[in-house]
Each structure stands twice: as structure tokens, then as C-alpha cells.
Amino acid sequence: VHQSKMDFFCKLGYGKQDICKVLENLGQEALEDDVLKELIRMGSKPQALENQAQPSQLKLVARGSCSSTQGLKRLGEDESDSSDSLRPIVIDGSNVAMSHGNKEVFSCWGIQLAVDWFRERGHTYIKVFVPLWRKEPPRQDSPIADQHILEELEKQSILVYTPSRKVKGKRVVCYDDRYIVKVAYEKDGVIVSNDHYRDLQNENPEWKWFIEQRLLMYSFVSNRFMPPDDPLGRHGPTLSNFLSKKPVLPERKWQPCPYGKKCTYGNKCKFYHPERQHQAQLSVADELRAKTKVPIALGKEEERRQCSP
């Protein structure tokens, strides 16, 4: 059991020393979710994330070189989404955290699950918006779980705090939903939330259309982030097409006719007939009419030839 857990977390990219420390603290029979939470709490990162976190070294480029555009990208500018085939993702952090905590606890682990789900799909632009006062220590009326995850996401430039302050002992909070919709609208991305933003829909008609067409709802099933396969309904696009800038249209599949060669609908039949590929798809009545007209026409031609001198 110890070796299998070591192999599992080594494949995720964690170091063997960190894994051994956690297993010694929690015991060999600890669940994988508990071990993963403890690794994150200790600040351990997979090797892939550590490589991403290391800033790339700037390289000098000669004047007139065609690689000058690559140098601009290395200067730390915002990643261009035009080359990426996937849409930018803007996550309503408060909505996701409260949904994962059953509307009782602000569970930061739910935000991490959502971010990991989109990372695995290959999305490069992911932003999470959370009010600034969530940095404060948890209280009885606003409990917070796994608060250290917010610090880790902020270091990775994924989490963004919306401003808030205190005036004469009262907290003044900016409306974070407006930040979420505005950024998603400007980036032409997708909003991840179970909120309908009805007040913002009434403010701006363009936002109304955008929220209706680009809102991705979700569910948590046993600590698993699960968006629907049909975000806009049964007759809408699939989830992969919904999240991509260039949707792929499925090939049209013709359903074969259940009557086969006995079908009497002819060209009016909506099903596929492999035997009629190179034939005129006429109904049985039209075929009979055509057959009766042919001998009549031939007889009239013979009479004309006999009467002609």
C-alpha cells in the first residue's frame, strides 16, 4: 500500500521526501484526498508547476531579427489568447467555494478543483475573482477552509482579489460580479458560476446576451468538479465546442430506412437508402406513371411515321 501511494503521488510530480513526511504524519492507511490536502498545506508543488513558476530568462535579440516578437512574449506580457484554440476562463471564486462547502463554509479546495479541471483540458488563461476581505482570518459567521490555497493561486497569478476597505469600522466591498462579467466579456471567454447575474443583465443588453450564451454551470460530485456535457441544453453545442473558439461540427450520420427496399415514400423518404444512391428516388406511383407514359409515346411516334409520306 505504501509503495502504491508513493508511485501515485510521484506520478503527480511530488517529491519522495514530502510524500514520506505526510505518510508518517497521517499513517499508511490515510486516504489519497487527505494526503493530497496535506501536501498542498505543506506548500509542496508538483515539478511541472515549479517549472512554470520559474521566470524565463530574457534573451538579447539582434536588431532586425525576425524573432523580436518572441522576445516581447518573454517580457512577461499578458498571454495572447488569439493563438490558443480554447476560450479564456473566468471563475466566480465565491460561488464555487460556497457551493463546494454546501453554502455553509467558504471551501477554497473547491476553487482548486475547478482550476485543475480547466488546466487538464489545456486552458492557459484562467482567472479567479475573490473579495479581498477573504484574506482576513476566519470567523464564526464566515468560516473559511483551506485558506492557504488562495495564497498559492495568487502566487501563480490565477487568483485576483477585488478591492474592499473599512470606513469607520464598516466594510465597503466592491461588486465582484461586475469584475467577473466585464473581464469575461472583454476576453470573449466563459464565466464559471451557478449565479445568473440578473441585475447585470438588466444593466447592459450586451452583457445580457453574453451571460445567456457564455455561462457555464457546474456541480460537485464527491470532490469532483463536473460541468454539464450540454451547457446550453440538449439542442445546444457540446461542452468541448462550448469551450473552444472554433467549434468542430459533427459529421451528419444518415439513419438507414427501417423499411429497406419495401419503402414506398421514394424521394420523400427522410431516411437513407443505399440502393438508391445512383437512382432517381421516385415514389412507386410516379414510377408506374412513367412506365405507362413511355409505351403511349412510342405508339404515337409510330403512327406519325406511317402517316408521313
UniProtKB/TrEMBL annotation:
Domain called C3H1-type: residue spans: 251-276
Lineage: superkingdom: Eukaryota
Cofactor(s) in the UniProt record: Mg(2+)
Annotated InterPro entries: Rege-1_UBA-like, RNase_Zc3h12_NYN, ZC3H12/N4BP1_RNase_Reg, Znf_CCCH
Any one GO molecular-function label of the UniProt entry: mRNA binding
Stored CDD domains: PIN_Zc3h12-like
GO cellular component: cytoplasmic ribonucleoprotein granule; nucleus
Alphabetically ordered keywords of this record: Endonuclease, Hydrolase, Magnesium, Metal-binding, Nuclease, Zinc, Zinc-finger
Chain ranges of zinc fingers (C3H1-type): 251-276
Keyword Membrane found: no
Similarity-based family: Belongs to the ZC3H12 family.
Protein name: ZC12D ribonuclease
